[in-house]
Hints:
Layout: H1 13-29, E1 35-40, E2 51-56, E3 62-72, E4 83-87, H2 88-96, E5 101-108, E6 113-118, H3 121-130, E7 137-141, E8 147-148, H4 153-170, H5 172-187, H6 207-218, E9 224-229, H7 235-248, E10 252-257, H8 272-283, E11 289-294, H9 308-318, E12 326-333, H10 334-339, E13 350-353, H11 359-369, H12 379-384, H13 388-397, H14 408-418
Parallel strand pairs: 3-5, 9-12, 9-13, 10-11, 11-12
Antiparallel strand pairs: 1-2, 2-3, 4-7, 5-6, 6-8
Helix pairs in contact: 5-8, 6-7
Amino acid sequence: MDIDDPHPNKSDWPSRKHDRDSVRLLQNLWKDCPVDDSHIEIGGTTPNIDGYIDILDAGAEITATITLQVKHLTYPPQEEVVFYDIPQEIVGYAKRIKTEVVLLVVCDTNNGTFYWKYIDENYIKDFCNASDHLQKKVRYYFKPCEYADGTNIHEVIAQWKRLYDAKKDSIVDRKLEAERLCVVQKKAFGTVKTNFGVIADTHIHREVTETLFNWIIQNGRDKTALLIGDAGAGKSVVIKDLIDRLDENGIKCLCIKADYLMNDDPLQTLSRELLFDSLSILSKGQDIFVLVIDQIDALSQYITKDRKQINNLLSTIASVKDFSNIRVVISCRKYDAKFDPALRQLESTKVFTIGSLSDSETRSVVDKLEPDLWNRLDPQTRMLIHNAQLLNVFCQIYKPRIKSVDCSRFLGRKHQLLYHI
Length: 421
């Protein structure tokens, strides 16, 4: 630090000390209760919360999980009136993660007590009505029943357990809706053909599929991956292969084929709330959960003027920061990822690239149409069918027993169409 600096850096030690003392107070108060608090962190690393506690039964089995944000009491009690300015961050967290019981716990370390507020849906509405875009906090006055000390801590923990049971019952219908969404969206990938033309056993396993899978299971700092490539490079096939790979390894995923969201069918409309709820419900209890979005470029400004769907998807992708166990994989054409203003924000994610097929990959397919066909192709046709989609077209139009094969003019027109659709 520069000693001549008129504005020296202010230490955050007092705040961290308050956080530490508050957590220690809680641990001391419920030390004889059936509570596992090993997941509470001082100044937790998960945004907007400080971790969670598990409530156990007599056999040490987990019966409830309660998410906490722990704060120290800013203003001392005055004539039994206790209040705290609740920040919008924890309210936003509870609004997004509807499957969790989220509590704000405010500790009075001077008196060995704490106050708590359940951030339920009713309070979220009250908070939104009381605040505006400029106001980041709303003052809340604690009720007598939202007080805890050494004399009533067992009853408070029991009450939290009842809140958890009520929450669990309330999301049954939401869970069914989320599971239904998962099944319906996954069916769209059944239209993705992995063989070329009608030739059996011509599926090409691309190396980038395994790279993406390894990225997912390594559980690193990056939460979002972008698979980019030219039109027709085979991104959808890679995504389908990745989904199959996840299924084989018991990793749950929500798969969305964005090109199916372009019509006006309300059944294909994915609201922001439905996406948030589904992610929260489906990922709960999973070590790793994956949100897969294929062909997000189908919603780019160059194809549709309706920005509602793409905004809903991008908002959902941004919300993943609230889920430590969720990874996102998105496929997109290189052009749209670079030039669409909305999609350009994805450039800061982990990027994987799919290129053209190699000579050996292309030849392995072509020679199944007819032995030694590869050597009879003109150079221009050979070059064009390194694109996976054009290779598929070639396999569909090829007629056998032709001495020399020149499909370059036809494939060239198809190649132009790929970049103008």
